[in-house]
Amino acid sequence: MKIAIVGGGPGGLYFAALMKQLDPSHDITLWERNAASDTFGFGVVFSDETLGGIGNADPVVAEYMSRRFARWSDIDIHFRGEMKTVGGQGFAAMSRKELLELLQRRCIELNVDVRFSTLAPPVEELEANYDLVLAADGVNSQIRAKYAESFKPNLDPRTNKFMWLGTNQVFEAFKFFVKETEWGVMQIHGYPYSDEGSTFIVEMHQDVWHAAGFDETANEVFPPGVSDEKAIARIREIFAEELNGYEVLTNNSKWINFTTVRNQSWRHNNVVLLGDAAHTAHFSIGSGTKLAMEDSLALAACLHEHPTVEEALEAYEAERRPVVASTQRAAQASLEWFERIGQYKDQDPTQFAFNLLTRSRRITQENLRLRDPEFAEAVDRNFASSQGLTETAPAMFQPFRIGGLELKNRIVVSPMDMYSAVDGIPGDFHKVHLGSKALGGAGLVMTEMVCVSESGRITPGCSGLYTDGQRDSWKEIVDFVHGRSTAKIGAQLGHSGRKGSTKLMWEGIDQPLESGNWTAVGPSALPYSAENQTPVELDRAGMDAIKAEFVASTVRAEQAGFDLLEIHAAHGYLLSSFLSPVSNKRTDEYGGSLENRLRFPLEVFDAVRAAWPADKPLTVRISATDWIEGGNTSDDSVEIAKAFVEHGAAGLDVSTGQVAKEEKPAFGRSYQTPFADRIRQEVAAPAGVAVIAVGAISSYDDVNSILLAGRADLIALGRTHLYDPQWTLHAAAEQEYQGPGAQWIPQFRAGRRKPPSSRTDAVRPRLSLLKETDIEESNTHLRWTPESAAASLLVK
Description:
The protein is an alpha/beta fold.
């Protein structure tokens, strides 16, 4: 093959070396506009997984790298005058300059035509004259820009400012210095990369950056290689304590806004993107160098394995895209956490350290228990102590009080519409459905959205509380839950609004009824979709009537014996549609500003609060974002939450979306939790109000991790409970917990231990006289010092 490579960073160089090893007859030319000695950055970090791949692909490179690595396993988190150390992580880093020098030498050894200080020919010329053109030209890729119509890039510049620096202080571990200054929170990401120095990245929100006066040089243009010395002098002053007399080292150091790069495609004919040109991941989760070198390995392998370039590039993208997507999801969660780090400034140091460690969801409590059991145990103890509890137990089984209601544990069965009522009356199905969840160990069982009127139903199968017969049927269910379990039960009240008069879910979700339909209403005459009916815009009389229906249903909910009541103001139903500018286009006092859009939902909430017993909690479910341009955002949800708290909400059930058919949710594991987290930190916790997190949370490990990090007070699970009605009790058994937070009823007690599997692994005899000890595993807390460099070579 005749191959052109544009960009002489680690990705381009490593790809060239790998291709030459696979077939020395490949004709490879690499262009790099900078000189060979122009190396920007300090240290790069690798995972053991990546190092294993490098070792398999090029033992020469791997062996040299291993001799230059700084290795350690600890993370030190400095916060509020304390340092929390967490071990068992496993890091390897080296100088970026040394890595580039190694790869440059390797390419020259293998007869790659490397042309430094040379601009590459126009890409269209390369495309015509080479079998393959590799665009490894970085985050500001000119080739990507040239063929933007094919690659369809999405560039997402973030709000935080950061500067890449170094220090001659040799850190012993990965260091997070989180410093509260008079201007706001700033943080240092630091790690050693040799026995001579460490990377020292300064990061802060741009509002803090402005407040601290770092914008003084914002309009200055620094040539390549020139650093922002004014800002660096200020950094030396602010972080004098952390530097401890050591120097700050510079190398093309200036303020940057991190940009997340995504592309719909990485290919254009025989041109392919690699590394930062194709994708970026925030430095707090991993190294761009690591990703680029993994790309190189995969691309070289695919080219070797497939007969044509087209097939190889297709295979490369199919193989690498899921890996990159997973990394970018974790990186997105991490960078957003650091953008909001100021909201955690009042957490105690142990909880903060756990929160930081679990920010990307890749580390969880159970994962941490394997890495550093001592710290994991400290987190459990700290959580219990912070709740005024003496018993250390899994966080999900610690009791919780919401308003005047005591719950035995933190698990909620989320409201789930069953579409199985007849004339709004819940029957045997609902009794079995909700009763089984109560017997299954949940602390609080929530009904589906119970409609306040016949015309307020979503479908003909929706239940209600608008007749006494419905009330009596609900009372049977409530009495069963109270009589047969220690669970509490709550009702969710709502009105379908413009999403009403539709088919049962399994007959066509959100599809309009073909017969027997009723008139939908809304804040404005805007249909939910082109297929749905146009709702009648509510006038004052119509709003008053609906408010009265909420009150009447509230009275019946109390008569039925419910322990808690929740107002459904999410998911595009009536109250939600008043809140969202997507569905509310009114020009009167109920439309326009957020204050106006809140007016009717708050009127309903106040009326319900007045009718509901004062000693019973009233909560509200909100959509924290509409997932659509022009809709409510996370900032709006904070204001909405504040308003409901000021009006007496005892809890906020934080969901997202379902307001507009055109929404584009960012689905993923626990994807709604960051919204709950923000509302808890900024609104709920200071007011002593509970926050319920919901959305793609399915493991007890994730539940415990969310609670321990302080991101929510209660966790609502829906589909998980459909899969396993006794999920809570099974989670207790798997965690070997027995206590008041997970009590098996007498009839089920014989099943509280997990049954044996179909076969049992044999117990192996001891056959060695001396126990083999893995050096890495025996050191939960491995530190890096200049003296340990020689020792690490002996270990290797």
